[in-house]
């Protein structure tokens, strides 16, 4: 044993620096005396006293003392962190939030000097804060809670629990001009809380209308079908003017007219020989262009059965609170509509696609408008609820063009679409015109065919259905200073 100790002492003594000393497993280094001695990570071995009583003993690596850094410093750092945490908690603990009531098992609001006070339940900290607004976006399935500390937090439709301070209503929903408290109750008092919770639950879980979408499809291509592209772009301009953003419009267009070599007005599309309004302009977003306009892509769009790599602008992101306006134009016949002279879609295909949409809760109501020959046969096979259908011509009738532009050598719009657009030009975002007002403008002398309206699947009366329920996207914002009470914990 003595020989081993002597050997270890000699082995350690040959090192003259800390860096080389600590490379030996059984050696340690005293910094004060610059001596390498036998030892483990805690202390020297045996009765070695050559280094005296120094506290600066290193093992394994230099400049990390086994007695100071490994024992003393963690204690000092731990106390410092604890003190900092206590100070931060004392300074930033919310003093004016709606808190957890001790009498009942839900959050309530008590007012003091105009501000809400109370304890804060940490289980709701991610969506409860003073003056934190809830934004119900026009983008379906992705409502967000805007938190000043954590940023936007998504709120799922299946678990709509949040502090409600800012609610956006679509046109035709809610009471225009009514205050937030009148619609959803006050934040003060037990009775107000119960009433508020009931109305909030009704708003979030009811079948109310919250957003509008438009799907505009031109199924034709080639220069001589100029009018069909003008039909679609005219409708696109109308729904955008009435408030539906591009993010909620799906435009399917061959897009081979504006830059066609036969176009004497390059990069333009007009719906009138006087060329007053350029429908193409610099603000048209075509989502499905050219050969992307197919029957398969149209059905996949409606049913949501798109491939994972499909970009957002090519998806119909609707939900059970969405009103969807679908407009189609092109060449058709009895129970079919041609897609770019290469394939057809029939009335059964569209009917089955709408049924899938209903079963998957992808719409609240649908307005289906089609301008083609024998258009009314295209919605004769529909069987899903809440669909209002309008066609330009009966079985056996043609849908005729209107204006002819002799400079371009083609017709620039169809009669049925022109009549609709002429009426829409009288509307604005706050219009109170109904479907009855629109349908009453149809007359055979101007359209030269008999438009059809199918209402048996639609549960609302036409004179109670505002056009802005499908064509507009007006949002009324109600603001309150008081946080809205959250419902009972699950």
Secondary structure tally: strands: 24
What would CATH call the architecture of the largest domain? 3-Layer(aba) Sandwich
What count of domains describes the coordinates? 3
Please mark out the parts with pLDDT under 50 across 5 or more consecutive residues, or reply none: 50-54, 65-71, 95-181, 183-189
What is the name of the CATH class of the largest domain?
Alpha Beta
- What is the C-alpha radius of gyration, as a whole number of Å? 36 Å
Oligomer: single chain
The CATH topology annotation of the largest domain reads as Rossmann fold
Strand order of the largest sheet: 14-13-12-15-19-20-23
Strand content: 15-25%
Output mean pLDDT.
77
Description:
This protein is an alpha+beta fold. The chain has three domains: 2-68, no CATH class; 99-170 and 174-207, no CATH class; 211-474, 3-Layer(aba) Sandwich (Rossmann fold), CATH 3.40.50. Helices cover 25% and strands 19% of the residues. The chain has helices at residues 2-13, 18-21, 68-92, 180-184, 190-205, 226-241, 295-303, 347-359, 415-424, 435-439, 444-447, 468-471, and strands spanning 27-30, 35-38, 57-58, 99-100, 107-108, 110-112, 115-117, 134-135, 143-147, 151-155, 166-169, 211-218, 249-253, 288-289, 322-329, 332-333, 336-339, 343-346, 365-371, 387-391, 404-405, 410-411, 452-454, 476-479. The strands form eight sheets. A seven-stranded mixed β-sheet has the order 14-13-12-15-19-20-23. Strands 2-1-3 form a three-stranded antiparallel β-sheet. The longest helix has 25 residues, at 68-92. It is elongated, with a radius of gyration of 36 Å.
């Amino acid at each position: 044993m003595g020989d081993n100790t002597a050997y270890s002492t000699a082995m350690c003594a040959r090192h003259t620096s800390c860096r080389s000393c600590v490379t030996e497993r059984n050696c340690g280094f005293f910094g004060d005396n610059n001596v390498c001695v036998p030892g483990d990570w805690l202390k020297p071995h045996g009765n070695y006293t050559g280094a005296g009583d120094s506290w600066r003993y290193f093992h394994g690596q230099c400049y990390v003392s086994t007695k100071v850094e490994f024992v003393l410093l963690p204690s000092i750092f731990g106390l410092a962190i604890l003190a900092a945490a206590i100070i931060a908690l004392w300074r930033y603990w919310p003093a004016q939030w709606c808190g957890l009531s001790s009498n009942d098992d839900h959050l309530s609001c008590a007012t003091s000097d105009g501000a809400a006070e109370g304890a804060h339940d940490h289980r709701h900290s991610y969506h409860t804060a003073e003056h934190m607004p809830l934004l119900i976006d026009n983008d379906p399935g992705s409502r967000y809670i805007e938190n000043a500390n954590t940023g936007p937090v998504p709120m799922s439709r299946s678990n709509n629990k949040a502090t409600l301070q800012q609610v956006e209503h679509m046109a035709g929903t809610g009471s225009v001009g009514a205050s937030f408290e009148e619609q959803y109750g006050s934040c003060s008092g037990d009775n107000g809380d119960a009433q508020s919770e009931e109305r909030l639950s009704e708003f979030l879980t009811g079948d109310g209308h919250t957003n509008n979408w438009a799907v505009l499809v031109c199924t034709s291509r080639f220069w001589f079908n100029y009018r069909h592209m003008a039909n679609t772009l005219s409708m696109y301009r109308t729904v955008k003017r009435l408030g539906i953003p591009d993010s909620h419009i799906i435009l399917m267009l061959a897009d081979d007219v504006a830059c066609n070599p036969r176009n004497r007005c390059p990069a333009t599309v007009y719906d009138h020989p006087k060329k007053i309004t350029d429908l193409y302009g610099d603000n048209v977003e075509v989502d499905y262009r050219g050969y992307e306009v197919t029957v398969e892509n149209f059905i996949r769009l409606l049913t949501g059965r798109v491939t994972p790599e499909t970009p957002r602008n090519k998806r119909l992101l609707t939900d059970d609170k969405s009103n969807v306006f679908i407009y189609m134009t092109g060449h058709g016949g009895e129970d079919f509509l041609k897609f770019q002279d290469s394939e057809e879609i029939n009335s059964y295909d569209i009917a089955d696609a709408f049924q899938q949409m209903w079963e998957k809760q992808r719409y609240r109501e649908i307005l289906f408008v089609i301008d083609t020959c024998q258009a009314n046969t295209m919605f004769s096979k529909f069987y899903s609820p809440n669909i209002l259908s309008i066609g330009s011509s009966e079985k056996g009738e043609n849908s005729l063009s209107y204006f002819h532009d002799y400079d371009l050598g083609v017709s620039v719009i169809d009669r049925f679409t022109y009549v609709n657009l002429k009426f829409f030009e009288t509307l604005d975002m706050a219009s109170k015109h109904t479907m009855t007002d629109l349908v009453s403008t149809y007359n055979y002398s101007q359209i030269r065919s008999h438009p059809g309206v199918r209402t048996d699947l639609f549960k609302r009366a036409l004179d109670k259905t505002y056009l802005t329920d499908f064509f507009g996207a007006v949002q009324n914002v109600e603001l309150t200073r008081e946080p809205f009470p959250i419902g009972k914990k699950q």
